[in-house]
Known about the structure:
This protein is of the alpha/beta class. The chain is built from 9 helices and 12 strands. The protein has helices spanning 40-54, 92-100, 109-120, 179-182, 184-195, 201-209, 213-237, 252-266, 286-292, and strands spanning 8-13, 17-24, 27-35, 62-67, 70-71, 78-80, 104-108, 129-134, 138-144, 147-148, 241-245, 276-279.
Amino acid sequence: MTSSTENRIGIDLGGTNIKLGRVEDGRVVQRFEIPTEHDAEVCLASLQDHVEKLSPGGAPMQIGVGVPGVINLERTRVVDAPNLSFLVDLPLADLLGEACKCPVILENDANVAALGEARCGAGRNHPDFLFVTLGTGVGGGLIFNDSLFHGPGGMAGEFGHLTVGHDRQCGCGALGCLEAIASARAMETLAAQSLGKALPLKDLADAARNGDRDALAVFHTAGACLGDALAQVALLLDLRVFLFGGGGGPVLDLLKKPALMVLKQRCFGRGIKDFHLLPAELGNDAGLLGAAYLEQA
């Protein structure tokens, strides 16, 4: 259940676009989407301007900001963000908070999406789950007892960099990361190599659903590797609920069977019926809603 969140503002700050919205009772009641200006001063001014438009009655009670990067433990500044380098080491929470006259909390984008699903989406009835984003990369957010789990260094949930037994190099430099074979981009690359032509993930999925064996093989390979990574999480934490979002979320139906088969093989004492691989419900609003529900540590 969600409680009243009158005049909470959620911001999903991406490398290309920024989504901002005012959230009340689990719903986005007013929103804007603007291009990301890769200049700190210009970006801050734009954020302040749009927050004021979302808060005609005065300062909001709180602003939450989701950022695709590493956030410091105090959740006040971005430590590392390859696509938003202009924000690195900027006291973003303090600057935005001073400008908008309210508290500001920063959080990793996968974490805010996980929190959004926990509060308003597919995780409402599941107090413990792993949220997985299948997009350009593979991200993860852990929800334990209805709350985000950060770990002592704030880096918990790096699901995409579990090793799953292939020899492809990941963007992080390591070999065998899940991200290098099961992200939306990796599946498209795998398809281009096996089919001899480039296909967007949606077209590849359509071909697989129509029985194309080569297309099906791509999803079987990616799904089995996904199951390997999920099994590692299940063996360590006994998590049994996994939610999937991001650009690859809509192909979960093609990844699910091979993933569950590996889970069954590797997780003794548990069978296929013990695991729930579910699509996320909030789509592009997950990050915005989750940001609005961030809480001070």
